[in-house]
Amino acid sequence: MASVERYVVERSQDQVRLAFKSVLEICKAKNIVSVTLVVPQKGGFDRTIVAEFLGPNIVKALVKGQAVLIAQGVQMKLESAQTFRGSWSEGLLIGAHISDKDMNKLDDSIGAQAVVYLPWNDPEGKAWQATWGAQIVGTNTAPAPVGSLPGPVEEALQV
């Protein structure tokens, strides 16, 4: 059995956009045609940042239990953490702002080809990334600060 590749999208203003960009890239690279988006609960999903990114028409269809086309040949369905069953889920699994306990369900899924995690907070994301050796999507380092010291002071520090 091949190992399941895992990806973590660190918290940022672009987290959701980066996640779905990476989802499309992963699906294309691995020939994955099925994506399952797992959220804490379906009730209220339409008021989340993930739903805002996806748009009202897609969200409406997902909440009704319909699969939606997110790219040519790639369909996505929505599951709540309570209804998700790893024994019948396959393809790429996305855990969006779910708890560690619920993320364990995705990690235990026997049909997963890849798993993407959008942690709600940095400690959860870093712990999961360390456990699974997950690849980090997007930038994981802060940009270098622009020098704000006067030139002679910077020169003195470099000597």
Question: Would you spell out the secondary-structure blueprint of this structure?
Answer:
Layout: E1 5-9, H1 15-30, E2 34-39, H2 49-54, H3 56-63, E3 68-71, E4 74-80, E5 90-96, H4 100-107, E6 111-118, H5 122-132, E7 135-137, H6 151-158
Parallel strand pairs: 1-6, 1-7, 2-4, 2-5, 5-6
Antiparallel strand pairs: 3-4
Describe the structure concisely.
This protein is 36% helix and 25% strand. It is α/β, with parallel strands linked by helices.
Describe this structure in words.
The protein has 159 residues and is α/β, with parallel strands linked by helices. Helices cover 36% and strands 25% of the residues. The chain has a 7-stranded mixed β-sheet, sandwiched between helices.
Neighbour order of strands in the largest sheet = 3-4-2-5-6-1-7
Largest sheet: 7 strands, mixed
Outline the low-pLDDT stretches: 141-147
Fraction of residues in helix = 25-40%
Q: How many alpha or pi helices?
A: 6
Distance between the termini: 55 Å
Give the DSSP E fraction (strand runs of 2 or more residues): 25-35%
Give the helices and strands as they follow along the chain: EHEHHEEEHEHEH
How many strands in all?
7
Mean pLDDT: 86
